[in-house]
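A reminder from the course coordinator: this example appears on the midterm review sheet, so study it carefully.

Given structure:
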């Protein structure tokens, strides 16, 4: 019996391709070329499934041009690339990879927080430039993490994992703001206290953003919110580009309105607002919060499980629609 045809849109682990190849006729993009929308449409002709990476826009136009498509399986937790309404109307299922990256992303949140608070990037650039000639008492003096106040905006699974690291690992006072308040037992497990967004901005020493992106959360942190923060505070965006107004943040950093920022995500990424590249008091990483080999393998396996589950057994593991 002929195998069903699927497309893998970007480079992935050879082990993942081998696993897919046991079940499907696979066309892959191991060259990791960046396809135009029309190229993606052309590649999807006669394919019933697509292994996607959260980057490929699956909308009504594409779906109309790809009548054989039945499922798009993101290997990411996020699925902003899916127009779920259009996919549902076209009878195409979308899936994601939940519960695969929570702990790894929380680890990286603390890596970014500590690098920001302790001015790691600034001091490394200073050293590499040959400027370190002597010791000085206030050289790259940053802010403490232990015993400080951690404010978390967005208290889903990743936010809760970060809260536990802060409270139990660093003795931090944890406050949070979320669209809805957590139940008492979950708050106790995280040693976290619910506060208004305004109170969080005014009192936290370190603010961590882990809220999902939506029209409502666009520019959750803008000029007015930055103005509420303490001048000694640090801002960490681990969530999505667009949660922070990057232009306003660059101004706040340049004017030392806040102490520093750490960003793993950006508006319009992979482009970065040029003003963010000119300020020294910032740590910048290229959207790598979940980038460990075990975690990325788990994410890939979840996409494989969704494709196999739906196309061979009629039921996806983590369907979105």
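Designed residues:
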């Amino acid at each position: 019996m002929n195998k069903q045809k699927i497309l893998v849109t970007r480079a992935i682990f050879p082990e993942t391709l081998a696993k897919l190849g046991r079940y499907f006729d696979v066309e892959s993009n191991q060259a990791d070329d960046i396809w135009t929308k029309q190229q993606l449409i052309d590649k999807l002709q006669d394919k019933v499934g697509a292994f996607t990476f959260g980057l490929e826009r699956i909308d009504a136009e594409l779906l109309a041009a790809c009548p054989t498509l039945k499922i798009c399986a993101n290997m990411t937790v996020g699925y902003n690339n899916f127009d779920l309404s259009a996919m549902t109307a076209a009878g195409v299922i979308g899936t994601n990879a939940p519960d695969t990256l929570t702990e790894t992303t929380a680890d990286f949140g603390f890596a970014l927080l500590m690098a920001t608070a302790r001015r790691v990037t600034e001091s490394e650039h200073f050293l590499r430039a040959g400027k370190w000639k002597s010791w000085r008492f206030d050289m790259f003096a940053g802010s403490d993490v232990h015993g400080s106040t951690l404010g978390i905006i967005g208290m889903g699974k990743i936010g809760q994992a970060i809260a536990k690291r802060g409270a139990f690992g660093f003795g931090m006072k944890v406050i949070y703001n979320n669209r809805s308040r957590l139940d008492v037992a979950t708050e106790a497990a995280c040693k976290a206290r619910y506060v208004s967004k305004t109170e969080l901005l005014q009192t936290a020493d370190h603010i961590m953003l882990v809220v999902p992106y939506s029209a409502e959360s666009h520019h959750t942190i803008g000029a007015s919110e930055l103005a509420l923060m303490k001048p000694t505070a640090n801002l960490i965006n681990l969530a999505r580009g667009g949660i922070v107004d990057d232009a306003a943040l660059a101004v706040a950093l340049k004017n030392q309105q806040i102490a520093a920022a750490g960003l793993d995500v950006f508006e319009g990424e992979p482009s970065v607002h040029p003003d963010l590249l000119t300020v020294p008091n910032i740590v910048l990483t290229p959207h790598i919060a979940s980038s460990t080999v075990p975690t990325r393998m788990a994410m890939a396996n979840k996409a494989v499980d969704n494709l196999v589950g739906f196309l061979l057994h009629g039921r996806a593991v983590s369907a979105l629609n």
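The longest strand covers residues 149-153. The radius of gyration is 22 Å.
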